[in-house]
Every structure is written in structure tokens, then in C-alpha cells.
Design brief:
Distance between the termini: 49 Å
CATH superfamily: q2cbj1_9rhob like domain
Shape: globular
Helix content: 25-40%
Structural class: alpha+beta
CATH class: Mainly Beta
Number of helices: 6
Strand content: 15-25%
CATH architecture: Sandwich
Order of helices and strands: HEHHHHEEEEEEEEEEEEH
CATH topology: Jelly Rolls
Strand order of the largest sheet: 1-9-4-11-2-12-13
Bound molecules: nickel (II) ion
Number of domains: 1
Radius of gyration: 17 Å
Largest sheet: 7 strands, mixed
């Protein structure tokens, strides 16, 4: 299976700012990844840990502490699609598992990712959002507004609402027309691709299954951190001759103490960027 994009798909991505569904892997393989994630969650809940597991799954740097996350970042099917948009040299800058339990009411308000990353308004980035369970309007799939990536970063405000999966409960401060949004329905093993300036949101999970998606943020080596003192990435394909990012190695085991220390450093550096204008 190859997920290399056709010329028509690439054109569609540039026009709409998103593309879906892209077949990244088969049923058996995606079932395996879901099982592995749920085994990690189960084991973690039975052990004593300082932090809730969300610090790692949702914090943006799961690939520092979980081999599973690093493997997903390096998955051939995903990388073939991403290479079609960003070229042969690829860095995984971040990865988050967005999990909505049935009926937990969690949502994501309308926002643009690049508002918070300190990477400027570069087009040398893309998010691959891989479904580990069915993403449907009932389970709270993402919603995109076609062409909205042609906006610059628009004003956002922080709500800090409890039900928001975003760290600051951030949302776009201007009205987004819901009727212009597209539901990004995905079967397990399929992914969507979206530009970091895309207006996007998602509703609550009203299905009986967990809604599990993993968002992997890819950049090419020309991107650089413009706000923070330093930034980190996992080289997953080709080479990085520019070295704007500090490279870390894929972890060898779950939650290794040395990896946990690095994870805390990275989280601190990322928070300094994400929360820079919060007083
Ligand atoms: Ni987002």
C-alpha cells in the first residue's frame, strides 16, 4: 500500500487546505496500534505516577517517551503522503493523542494551530490526523472550513473552559460559519491532512466507542522556532542539513527515566511559546 498523493490530491490540498481520506494502513495494523495504546493506558493506570497520562498523550511530545508514538511518526504510509506535500526531508515536530471517551463532553473549539507554535505562518508544515477508531459526526470528528488556510492568523481568545481539549481553551474570536464546515469522517487506518492555518474544531463524542485520533505535526528542515529559545524534533525521513531543531532519538521503552527528564524540558520550552502572551 502506498499513500503517495496524486497531482490532483496535492492540488486539492493547496486549494482547500485539507485532504481526506487517505489510506495510511490496513485494518489489522491499525487495530494493533489501538491495542498497544490501550495496553499502555491500562498499565499506566495500575502504576504509581506523578502525572496523569494526559501530560504525555496530549502534551504534544509523546514521541519522546513512547516507542508507539515514535513508530507512528515514522510510519511509511503516513510519511509517503506527507512527503508529497513537504518534500523528502521530514521531521516529526509533535504528536498528540486526542481521545474523547463516550459521553465525556470533550470538544475542541475553532482555532488555527499555527497561532500557538512559534513557527510563524509557514506552509512547510502539515498535520496528519490518523483515526484509531471511527471518526464520524456522532463520535466528534474534526470539522474544517475549506480555504480558511488562506487567512493569516486571526485573533484568538482563551476560554479555559473545562470541556476543551486545548490547553488554553483557545478559540477564534471572529464568527466561523458552521454551515461552511466539512465533517472529516475517517475509518480506522485512514488519515486527513491539514494546513496549520486551517480553521478547525470538533464536537462531543456521542457514540458508544472511544474516539481516538493521533495528530502528528510534520515540518521540513527549513522551518524554525521564532519565539522560543530552542525547539525539538524527531528526524523521520531523509536528512536535516539545516539543524534548526534539536534532534532526539526515538525512545527504546515506555517512560524511561532519562526520556521523562527530556520530556519535562521540552514541555517547559513549549509552554514558554504556547503561553507567551498570557498574563
Ligand atoms: Ni488543532
Amino acid at each position: 500500500m502506498t499513500a503517495t498523493l496524486t497531482a490532483a490530491q496535492i492540488e486539492q490540498f493547496h486549494r482547500d487546505g485539507f485532504l481526506f481520506p487517505v489510506e495510511a494502513m490496513g485494518h489489522e495494523e491499525i487495530r494493533h496500534y489501538r491495542r498497544e495504546l490501550e495496553t499502555i493506558e491500562q498499565r499506566y493506570s495500575e502504576e504509581n505516577h506523578e502525572h496523569a497520562i494526559g501530560r504525555y498523550l496530549l502534551g504534544g511530545s509523546a514521541n519522546v517517551v513512547l516507542p508507539l508514538a515514535a513508530q507512528l511518526c515514522s510510519h511509511r504510509g503516513i510519511l509517503d503522503a506527507v512527503e508529497s506535500l513537504l518534500g523528502p526531508d521530514l521531521l516529526a515536530w509533535g504528536i498528540s493523542f486526542f481521545i474523547k471517551e463516550p459521553g465525556d463532553g470533550k470538544i475542541v473549539t475553532w482555532h488555527q494551530d499555527l497561532t500557538y507554535w512559534g513557527l510563524g505562518e509557514t506552509s512547510d508544515q502539515v498535520t496528519a490526523w490518523l483515526a484509531l477508531s471511527p471518526a464520524t459526526p456522532v463520535s466528534g470528528c474534526m470539522r474544517f472550513v475549506a480555504g480558511s488556510h488562506k487567512n493569516a492568523v486571526v485573533p484568538h481568545r482563551d476560554t479555559y473552559s473545562e470541556n476543551n481539549l486545548l490547553s488554553r481553551g483557545q478559540e477564534i474570536a471572529v464568527e466561523v460559519k458552521e454551515e461552511h464546515a466539512t465533517n472529516i469522517e475517517l475509518a480506522p487506518g485512514q488519515l486527513s491532512l491539514h494546513h496549520g492555518l486551517m480553521f478547525h474544531s470538533s464536537g462531543p463524542n456521542q457514540s458508544s466507542d472511544r474516539r481516538i485520533g493521533v495528530a502528528i505535526r510534520y515540518v521540513n528542515p527549513s522551518v524554525r522556532q521564532e519565539v522560543g529559545a530552542r525547539d525539538y524534533a524527531l528526524l523521520v525521513r531523509g536528512a536535516d542539513r539545516v539543524r534548526n531543531f534539536i534532534h532526539f532519538a526515538a525512545p527504546a521503552r515506555d517512560f524511561d527515566p532519562a526520556d521523562l527528564l527530556l520530556h519535562e524540558e521540552i514541555l517547559e520550552d513549549k509552554a514558554a511559546v504556547n503561553f507567551r502572551d498570557v498574563s
